[in-house]
TrEMBL record:
Provenance organism: Lentilactobacillus raoultii
Keywords, in A-Z order: Methyltransferase, Transferase
Domain called YtxK-like N-terminal helical: residue spans: 10-88
InterPro entries per record: DNA_methylase_A-5, DNA_Protect_Modify, S-AdoMet-dep_Ade-MeTrfase_prd, SAM-dependent_MTases_sf, YtxK-like_N
GO biological process, alphabetically ordered: methylation
Highest taxon in the source lineage: Bacteria
Name of the protein this chain belongs to: Class I SAM-dependent methyltransferase
Domain DNA methylase adenine-specific: from-to ranges: 101-297
Any single Pfam family the record assigns to this protein: N6_Mtase
A GO molecular function held by the record: methyltransferase activity
Length: 337
């Protein structure tokens, strides 16, 4: 990243942060709620809607006058918004489900997708649990840059605040997207796409009634929401299309995995399971992996061998690059043959 780009990220973050803190103070509300309002007004250009008075209103007016969207590329804007959301999580002590997928992981997923779909003129992506939209927009921007395709984008999110953050982020980055403010498990009429990507929520889904149409639902008690999400997502992939999911490394070692494995047979091929470095997680039990599924049909076949392994430390650039080369070789020789 160039010094110029880093400066632009800092400059846009500074605008967001200073304005958000003014709104937070004058309106006596959370940093997160204030940030959502600020992002909305940055997009619309209507700073009067923030309802600030006195010197605060003048400060914001001056900052907005200095901001020209055309001076920034989408990725610069995304990174600045990401910094502001991370500050909101820290300041407001927000629960874990607001945590943002690290850019390094988004870049790895984007890299693998780019390798598979290089040469395609059209591509469609769906995230059934998009959160703030950071993973989806990071991959979108990477694909635009690396293989020069502008994917059509869809995302689903049930949480009000996260949906607003995502919608504003897409708008500010000038990324057209079809967004659904709904509970994914309640049969959202989402499009059928080439690729689904998601940093899945982990835990139990509380409303058993909504899971009745799912093969991955638990036989007794609540069902794992990440199992249900995987099934929903792959049901919305074209034949031969792919799913990239961040899942617990121990996904197949739980008692509930039996239903998931049963559903997978005949519906999807497990093409890869790549554990992420231990250093990214507080303890071994929290470790996650990138799971690669391919929907049965079209030209899809079971790769042999399946891509299994663990990423080296992201800090070890040489070992990390070597691992990416191994993924490249596997794609060419085993996955795409």
């Amino acid at each position: 990243m160039s010094v110029l780009t880093e400066g632009q990220i800092e400059r846009f973050f500074s605008l967001l942060n200073e304005t958000t803190e003014l709104v937070q103070k004058q309106r006596d509300q959370s940093y997160l709620d204030s940030l959502i309002e600020v992002l909305d007004t940055v997009q619309s250009g209507d700073d009067d809607s923030l309802g600030l008075t006195g010197t605060g209103a003048e400060q914001v007016r001056q900052r907005y006058a200095e901001f020209d969207r055309e001076d920034y590329d989408a990725e610069t804007l995304r990174k600045a918004i990401q910094m502001a959301v991370l500050k909101a999580i820290r300041v407001d002590k927000i629960q874990a489900n607001y945590q943002i997928t690290p850019d390094t992981i988004a870049n790895v997923i984007g890299y693998i997708i780019a390798g598979i779909f290089n040469g395609r003129s059209q591509l469609s992506l769906l995230d059934p649990a998009m959160g703030t939209g950071n993973l989806l927009t990071a991959i979108y921007n990477q694909l635009v840059e690396s293989i020069h395709v502008q994917p059509s984008i869809s995302g689903i999110e049930n949480d009000d605040a996260m949906f607003e953050l995502a919608a504003n982020s897409f708008d500010i980055q000038h990324i057209h997207a079809e967004l659904f403010h709904e509970d994914t498990i309640q049969n959202v009429l989402a499009p059928i796409v080439d690729v689904v990507v998601s940093d899945l929520p982990i835990g139990y889904y509380p409303i058993d009634e909504n899971t009745k149409g799912f093969s991955t639902r638990a036989s007794t008690g609540h069902s794992y929401v990440h199992h249900l999400m995987i099934e929903f997502a792959m049901d919305h992939v074209k034949k031969g299309g792919y799913g990239f999911f961040l899942v617990p490394s121990q996904l197949f070692k739980t008692a509930e995995a039996k239903q998931l494995l049963k559903w997978m047979q005949g519906n999807v091929y497990l093409q890869g399971l790549l554990n992420l470095p231990n250093e990214l997680f507080q303890n071994k039990s929290a470790q996650k992996a990138i799971m690669i599924l391919q929907k049965v049909g079209g030209n899809a076949k079971q790769a042999s061998p399946i891509m299994l392994g663990e990423f080296p430390s992201f800090k070890d650039r040489s070992a990390f690059q070597k691992f990416l080369t191994e993924i490249d070789d596997w794609q060419k020789k085993d996955l795409l043959q």
